[in-house]
Each structure stands twice: as C-alpha cells, then as structure tokens.
Amino acid sequence: MPSVWAAKHTAERLFYTTEFDSLFMEGLCYMHADSLNMAQNRFETCAKLQPKSAAVAFQLSSLYALQQDTVRSIDQLKKATKLNPNNYYYQTSLAEIYTDQSNYKEAVKIYKKLTSLFPDKDYPFYMLSRCYYMMGDYKKSIQAYNQLEKRIGINPEFTLEKIFAIALSGDIEGTEEAFKALHQKFPMNEELYYREGAVYYNLFDNLQKSIVCFEKTLSINPDHAEALRYACDLYDRMGEQAKVDETMVKIFASKSIPWEEKKELLKVAIAYYRTRVNYTDIIDTIFKKMVMADSGNEEIWNKYCDFLFDINDPQGAIEVTNACIDILPTCETCHFQRYSISEITNSDEVTEQLLDKTLQALPNHSFFLCKKAVLRFLQKDASWETYAQQCVENTNDSIQTNIATYVYATISSLYGESDQFEKAVKYTEKAHLLDPNDINTANNHAYYLALLGKDLEKAAEISYNVIQKEPLNSAYLHTYGYILMKLGKLDYAKFYMHQAVEYDHQTNYEVYHDYANLLEQLGEKEEAQKMFQVAKEIKEKNETQHP
Fold this sequence. Notes:
This protein has helices at 4-32, 36-49, 54-66, 70-83, 88-100, 104-117, 123-135, 138-152, 156-168, 172-185, 190-202, 207-220, 225-237, 241-253, 259-273, 279-293, 298-310, 314-327, 332-344, 348-361, 366-378, 384-394, 405-417, 421-434, 439-452, 456-469, 474-486, 490-504, 509-521, 525-545. The chain is mainly α. Helix 6 (104-117) runs antiparallel to helix 7, helix 12 packs antiparallel against helix 13 (225-237) and helix 21 (366-378) runs parallel beside helix 23 (405-417). Helices cover 79% and strands 0% of the residues.
C-alpha cells in the first residue's frame, strides 16, 4: 500500500501535467489568433511547470521570432536542441535563423550535423552547399552540390547553382562541361542557355560564346526579354549595327516586357539613335511594334503622337490619334492630341469636323464644348451660347481651374480686341463668377471696368487681390495703377505704374502710354515725353512684326 507522501506526490504530478497540457494548448490557440502577449504568458508559465520541455522552448522561440526578438528566439532554440538534439525541425529552425543573419559559419555546423543525423533528408545537403557558396568557399560548395546531385540527379535549379560556384572559382572548362551535361539532360530549356550566356558575359567576358547562348535562347523563345537585352548590347559591342536594330525592334515588340520597363528602355533607345541617320525610321518602327503588342495602352499611342509631332509630321500624328480613337473611342488624351494638331493647320473646317467627332465620343466634355462655343462665336453663329451653357452645366467643380471659364474669358478677349468693352466686361464677369481664382480673368474684368469707368472701387478691389497673388506681373501692376489713376489717386497710381514699367522690359505699348499720360497729369512733362517715345517705338515694332 503506497505511503501518504507517495499518494500526495502522484496527485500533484497529475495536477501539474493536466494544467501544463491545458496551458500549452491555450498558448497554441492564442498564437494562431495572433494574441502574442497571451500566448507568451501561457508558454512562459508552461516553462515554469516543466523547465525541461523542448516543445515549450521551441514554441517560445517561434513566439519571440514573431515579436522580432531574435536574441531570445535563438536562446530558446538552443535550449530546445540541447534538450532534444535529434529533433530535425528544432535543428533546421536554428540553422535557418543563423542563415538569415548571414552567420553561415554556425549554420554550417548544424547542417553538417544534420547530414549525419538524417542522411535521408535532401534539404541539409542543399543548405550546406548554399552556406559554403555564400561564404565564398566554392570548393566545399561544389562538393556539397555533388553529393546532392548523387541523391536527386541533375536538376536545373540546383545544378545551375553548382555551375555558378564552378564559374566563380574561375574554372572555365568545368563550367563548360557542367553546362554541356545540363543541356544533354534538358535540351529545350531556354533558361539554361540564357543563364549560360549570362555567365560567359558577366564572369568571363567571352562575347562569342555569350551571343551563341543568347541566340539559342531566342531560337527557343523569341520573346525572352533578358536574352533580347543582352543580345542587343552584345551586337552593339561587336559593331553589328543591323543586328542591333533588328534586336532593338524585337525588344519593343515583346509582350513579356511590361510597359513601365519599355518606357525606360524607350528613353535609352531614343538617346542611342538620336544622332543616327535612321533615327526617324527606327523609332517609328519601334512605336508601331509597341502599339501592336499593346494596342489598348493609350499612353503608348500618346507618346507615339508626341514623337511624330516632334519630327514635324502632323499628318502622321493625326493618323495615329485617329487609329487610337478607333480602338479607344473615349481616350481623352488622344482627342486632345488630335485637336491640338488640327489647330496647327489653321483650318476652321478641319477643326470643326474633329470637334464634332470628339463631342460624339465625349458629349459632356467641358473643354471641347468650350472650344466648340468659341469656334461658333468666331463664325458669328448664335448657337455658341448653347455650347457655352452646356459647358457650364457639365463642368466638374473639383477641377482646380474651372475650364468652363475659358469660353467666357476667350469671347471677352475677342470683344476687347475690337473695343467692344461693354460686351467684354459682361463675359469676364461671367467667367470671374465661375472661377474667382482665375487671376488672369479677374485682371481682365477689372481692366475692362476701368476702361468703361464703371464700378471703379470694385475694380480696384479685384485688381488689388490679383497683384497680391502675383506682385511681379507687369500687366497686373499696370491694371491696378490704371484703376487708381481713374480714381484720381495719382501718387499711388504712379507707384504701381512705375513698377509695371520696371517689370515690362519694353514690350507692352499700353503700359508705357498710360504711364506717360499719368506723368503728364502730374506735371512731369520731360519724363512723360520719354515714356511717350518708348510707347511709340514699341507700337512701331509690333506693327512691323505683325502687320
């Protein structure tokens, strides 16, 4: 019959074992629920109940790793491996932490041990070869890879890594033999030929062998992006310009190279060909190939149009935008491009036809409604007001500069140029109400009011706000000075008029003419005559340039 002490001891042991199991399971559940603090509390309590539990040490190590506490994680893993030295997962976990920390020396010790303890496992042999590789000990790395190959056979991934080690050790013949064995096993693997070409190019600078490998790659996969890039560079170094051109075009025709990369490559291609005789033809061909490879990308179409515009081919640019619009009818940028190009032709008929087509595709687009309204106005067609109203109704208030003001501001300027200031001020007021932050419209509105001699105090307030935003603009300073002159505040007017003259650099007739009038009113006859003379010279110069 057991003693009372023995019975009590057995009961305590059963109690603690039951409590330990419960706490351990709770800890696992909390870890899975990402409640790391609660999990840590449970596992640390488990460690007190059973200090020699390797399982607890392993879980604590995992927990500390999740909390980025590498030191404590390693300490617990060391404890787990000491308590249970034959546990494969504990040992590999510790070795992996050392590998992640680039502590390859310690990782090698563990992986070498694992190859003895678990000879049926491939992973330790692979990691041993990797660690030696990272340490620069290529001889031992190759030996470990050879052991792995004996176990699993020639493998494209592992054997390639072995070949890199052979190449880095400077063994050219060994590299060649190893690649030959790989190709015999995998004769149609394009990546192996590409990698071989890269090795000969980067490590041995053997251009002839490199190009043979890249050409073999491209014979299997003509769209191999990296091989195309290497081949293009090699042909350039070897002076084979025709092959450079051919390969360059293939690069941009490739569907495996994303647009963002092609965009950067395009800058390189343009810089490369800029001074060459075939610049226009080769870049045009490149754009055509890009469009064929990705016809739904409006950015490519727009850059193509910009290129044609740069080489002074507006007709070609219009054809490109037309082609883009056929594929992407609502491409706003293409419609903008086409309209901008059409304006160069100075043909109202062509412009109107394009506007009509654009408004069919984008019926509520404020900018094109504005353009249509102005065009109709220039044709003395009363329907311009209909387009102007549509433009105002469809304008998006979130646009920083309200584009609907354009129609009113432009028509106001046209009236102003023909000295119809009553009508001009009517439309600058409309534009100013639509977008009070458009300072050019605000300045014009204030100026037309001053020319009419109406609401001068209001005009002065508007003009003052304008020059607060742009205090160095000659035209805006002139407007404010002119309004002050109209109000009879001649001394203040002189200050702003003088600043307008200082910043104008003898380009604006009105600035000098109005300043001369002001000086005359102030009795400064001699200075006034000088300003009148400058104004006359500016006017004559402008009439000569724009008869």
